[in-house]
Amino acid sequence: MKITKQEILDTALDVFAERGYASTILKNISDRLNVTKSALYKHYESKEALWDALINHVEQYYRENFGNTESIVIPGSMDELTELTLRQLQFTMHDETVRKVRKLLTMEQFRNERVKALAEKYFHSNIVSIYTTIFRGMAEKDLIQIGNPELVAIEYTAPISVMLQAYDRAPDRESEIHHKIQEHILFFISVLQREDED
Length: 198
Fold this sequence. Notes:
Layout (H helix, E strand, L loop, with lengths): L4 H15 L6 H8 L3 H5 L5 H19 L12 H17 L1 H13 L4 H28 L8 H21 L4 H24 L1
Helix pairs in contact: 1-2, 1-4, 1-6, 5-9, 6-7, 7-8, 8-9
C-alpha cells in the first residue's frame, strides 16, 4: 500500500496527540496506517525527523488558516470586530487539526523546547500580536480611542483563551462557553464605546 507524506503527518498528529511524543514509537504510527515501519522510513528516517516535519506542518497550517499580522484585515466597525473574533473562535473550536494540535502542544510544552515556543506563540503571543494590530488599526481609523493597543489586545483575548481551555476540558459545555465568550465580546465592545464617549 502506497502512502503519502500528508497521510503520514495526519496520522502522526493523531497518534502523538493521543500518546504524547515520548510514548509514541514509529510502529504505533505504521500500525495505524496499516503499513510496515519500512514504508515510513522511505519518507522519514526517524521518529525525530517525523516529529520535526509534523511541527513544521502545524506551523504552516496555522499561518494559512488562522491568519497573522500581515494578512489580517482591519475591521471597519465593532460589528466586523465581533464577526472576525467569532469566525476565528469557530475555526479554533471546530477545526479537527487545530483541536489535536492544541492537545499536543498542551501535553508536550513541558517536555520539548521547540513545542514550548510553539505553544507560547499560538496560545498567547500570536493572538495578542494579531489583536494589537487590529486595535491599533481601528484606532488609526478613529473607530476607537485607546491608549496602549497591546494592553487592550491582552485584555480582550485573555478571557477568550481561558474559556477556550475550559472548552478543551469539557467539549460538552460548548454552547455555554460560546455564549460566555459572546457576552465577553459584547461587554468589551461596550466598554470601548463608552471610553470613546468620554
